[in-house]
Amino acid sequence: MSQSTISQAVLDWMSLREIESKGRRSLAVPADVSLEPEVEKTIQKVVQDLGSLDVMVANAGIVTFESFLDTTVESFDHHMAVNARGTMLCYKHAAKQMIAQGRGGRIIGATSQAGKQGISLCTAYSASKFAICGLTQAAAGELGIYGITVNAYAPGVVKTALSQFFCLNAFTHALSALVTSSAVNRIGTPEEIAGLVSYLASDGSGFVTGQSISINGGSYFD
Hints:
4 strands, 50% helix, 10% strand, Rossmann fold, 4-stranded parallel sheet, alpha/beta
């Protein structure tokens, strides 16, 4: 088992304990979202153990920082497989389950500021995140008749372990430029992103669909 696999397993366990400490039920089902059978099995397991699927947040994603001229076909295809195809598969099979249940639902994807404005050194990532915006609009147009809304959130730089890692390495200048271009002169917090996702998952968001909503502190205006 790789170090990254062990770390993810620890994070999954901590997340489960946090949810259960609030008196809620939780379930962790490791899967590769780029593989359709694994996405199907994950949804089946959720329905089997928890009773239904009412909200799908397709959040899995990868990013590699490399110049456009150095981007390989393998890197490009890997980004598209996980970020774009993985989101499509989560949307598709969540929608099928929600339609079968007959009471609508909320489908939410994770695009990015890089999915609204291409970012240097992120060619494959930007392309995959632009794809999610189009996918979200297309799916929303078809699924609304079933009471299913489909939206995405598009964060700018957020204070996470990943962004802090890159601040300590080669991309300090690029990240600093994004911070100073923000209208609020700071990066976002995970809690702020979670607030938007919670709204999109709520009953109150029923008239919002097909949107990829920017949440970036004003570093990019739609």
